[in-house]
């Protein structure tokens, strides 16, 4: 798979303090990448460097083989946490104004992006009158005007209801599939990161983990099987030390796989009155690595 973004030994120093310290990022074309970290970890600084907003103190960034900031900007789109569109202008007026900033961009591109984000019904409304979800869809449309090869999304669904979040992700997933769009995502909703092809976790300016969500969950979390029933019998038979504990009348067992849980449930079927099985999540990964919940 072709590489669309490559950053090597990326570093940013403020007042002799390294906000980002020699990190490497490699992104394949058409992939969804989640970039996670607690507040103050260096996440925003990294994004600003990757999108040419901030000049690195060291390291190298290539986007589609190009290194100059001008060439990189032609290949990227950015959806910021805060909108940069005019509240008084209509959706269409905002997009037409933004389209004029690009050379040789056909007028029909505005119609295309409005259709992509399903904004036809409110395209003639003032941007400031829209709901949060509608505004976010228009923000994405604005970022798609120049047909970017990489779309950077900074907390794209924060504060939105689940239906709107699903609509936005349905749109993005279709573009990823149909147009080979690469998506670079920061999010506080770790279930969104669970869908990523690649996950990077940063803390204190250092990359502390990298892999698929499955790889990270396998390495940094345990599956948990909770059993209620003849706990004394099961506990005496198992004797697993730290993998076995009691809490509020329930027996809690850490398992390495769902197959191990199934084997245990089959073995002690007669002694079990009730059970619950929970696989490790990206939230568990994040807490295991950083010691805190993402905010």
Share of helical residues:
25-40%
Architecture per CATH nomenclature, i.e. the level-2 architecture of the largest domain: 3-Layer(aba) Sandwich
Element pattern in H and E: EEEHEHEHHHEHEHEEHEHEEHEH
Structural shape: globular
CA radius of gyration is: 23 Å
The fraction of residues assigned to DSSP E strands is 25-35%
DSSP helix count?
11
Poorly predicted spans: none
What is the third-level CATH name, the topology of the largest domain?
Answer: Rossmann fold
**Which CATH class of the largest domain applies here?**
Alpha Beta
- Tell me the domain tally: 2
Structural class: alpha/beta
> How many β strands by DSSP?
13
Strand order in the sheet with the most strands: 5-6-7-3-8-9
| Name given to the CATH homologous superfamily of the largest domain | P-loop containing nucleotide triphosphate hydrolases
Q: How far apart are the first and last residues' alpha carbons, in Å?
A: 33 Å
Overall mean confidence score, pLDDT: 91
> What is the makeup of the main sheet?
6 strands, mixed
Family: Belongs to the ABC transporter superfamily.
Organism: Oenococcus oeni AWRIB429
Keywords: ATP-binding, Nucleotide-binding, Transport
InterPro entries: AAA+_ATPase (IPR003593), ABC_transporter-like_ATP-bd (IPR003439), ABC_transporter-like_CS (IPR017871), ABC_transporter_ATP-binding (IPR050763), DrrA1/2-like_C (IPR025302), P-loop_NTPase (IPR027417)
Structure in words:
The chain is of the alpha/beta class and 295 residues long. The chain folds into two domains: 3-210, Rossmann fold, CATH 3.40.50; 222-279, Alpha-Beta Plaits (2-Layer Sandwich), CATH 3.30.70. It is 35% helix and 29% strand. The chain contains eleven helices and 13 strands. The protein has helices at residues 43-50, 69-74, 91-99, 108-116, 132-144, 162-179, 190-193, 213-220, 231-238, 258-267, 282-290, and strands spanning 3-14, 17-28, 32-36, 58-63, 76-79, 150-154, 182-186, 198-203, 206-211, 223-229, 244-247, 250-255, 272-278. The strands form three sheets. Strands 5-6-7-3-8-9 form a six-stranded mixed sheet. Strand 6 (150-154), helix 6 and strand 7 (182-186) form a beta-alpha-beta unit. Helix 3 packs across helix 4. The longest helix is centred in the middle third of the chain and has 18 residues, at 162-179. The radius of gyration is 23 Å and the shape is globular. The relative contact order is 0.14. GO terms for molecular function: ATP binding; ATP hydrolysis activity. Belongs to the ABC transporter superfamily. This is ABC transporter domain-containing protein. Residues 5-229 form the ABC transporter domain. It holds the Pfam family ABC_tran.
């Amino acid at each position: 798979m072709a590489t669309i973004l490559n950053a090597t030994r990326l570093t940013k120093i403020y007042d002799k303090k390294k906000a980002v310290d020699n990190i490497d990022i490699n992104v394949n074309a058409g992939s969804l990448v989640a970039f996670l970290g607690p507040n103050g970890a260096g996440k925003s600084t990294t994004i600003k460097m990757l999108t040419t907003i901030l000049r690195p103190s060291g390291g190298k960034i290539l986007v589609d083989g190009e290194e100059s900031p001008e060439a990189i900007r032609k290949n990227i789109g950015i959806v910021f946490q805060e909108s940069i569109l005019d509240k008084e202008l209509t959706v269409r007026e905002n997009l037409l104004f933004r389209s004029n900033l690009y050379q040789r961009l056909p007028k029909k591109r505005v119609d295309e992006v409005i259709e992509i984000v399903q904004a036809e019904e409110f395209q003639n409304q003032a941007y400031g009158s829209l709901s949060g979800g509608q505004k976010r869809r228009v923000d994405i449309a604005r970022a798609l005007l120049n047909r970017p090869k990489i779309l950077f999304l900074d907390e794209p669904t924060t504060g939105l209801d689940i239906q709107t979040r699903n609509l936005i992700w349905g749109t993005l997933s279709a573009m990823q599939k149909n147009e080979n769009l690469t998506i670079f995502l920061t999010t506080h909703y770790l279930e969104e990161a669970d869908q990523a092809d690649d996950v990077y976790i940063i803390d204190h300016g250092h990359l502390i983990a990298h892999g698929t969500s499955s790889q990270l969950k396998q390495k940094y979390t345990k599956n948990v099987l909770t059993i209620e029933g003849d706990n004394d019998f099961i506990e005496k038979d198992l004797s697993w030390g730290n993998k076995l504990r009691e809490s509020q009348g329930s027996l809690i067992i850490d398992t390495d796989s769902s197959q191990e849980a199934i084997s245990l449930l089959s073995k002690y079927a007669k002694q079990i009155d009730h059970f619950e099985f929970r696989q490790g999540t990206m939230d568990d990964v994040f807490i295991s690595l950083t010691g805190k919940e993402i905010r």
